[in-house]
Amino acid sequence: MDEDFPNQTLKEKIETYIMKRFTNGFWGGEDILIAAAEYYLVDVHVIQENADRIIYCPLPPVQQNIFLLFSGNRYDSIVTLQTQELYACQKEFTVK
């Protein structure tokens, strides 16, 4: 990764790497989950059928938890009821 972005700070390198990966047609994997966990300070919980849960944990302070379901070939987000309620409250107070 360093040779691709030689004049950037570590934060800029991670940001560039993540943005390059969030383009149409790109399939991310474990590397992008680790980078996102570190950059956004979140614990990423990956739940799989017939396997133990995997948790990618950055150094504290962690801001929140994100849950993903891995079906064997793709990741889908799992949104908790608490997250849905928080999002609904935020939308109610948005001034247009």
Broad CATH class: Alpha Beta
Strand order of the largest sheet: 2-1-3-4
SS element count, helices: 3
Distance between the termini: 42 Å
> How many structural domains in the coordinates?
1
What's the main sheet like? 4 strands, mixed
Main structural class = alpha+beta
Helix content estimate: 25-40%
Q: What's the architecture in CATH terms?
A: Alpha-Beta Complex
Report the CATH topology name.
Cathepsin B, Chain A
What is the global morphology?
Answer: globular
Rounded radius of gyration (Å): 16 Å
Uncertain segments of ≥5 residues (pLDDT<50)? none
Strand content: 15-25%
Order of helices and strands: HHEEEEH
Instruction: Give me the count of strands.
Output: 4
Overall pLDDT metric: 77
Give a description of the structure.
The protein is α+β, with helices and mostly antiparallel strands and 96 residues long. It has a single domain, classed as Cathepsin B, Chain A, CATH 3.90.70. The protein is 36% helix and 22% strand. Strands 2-1-3-4 form a four-stranded mixed sheet, covered by helices on one side. Helix 1 (10-21) packs across helix 2. The protein is globular and about 40 Å long.
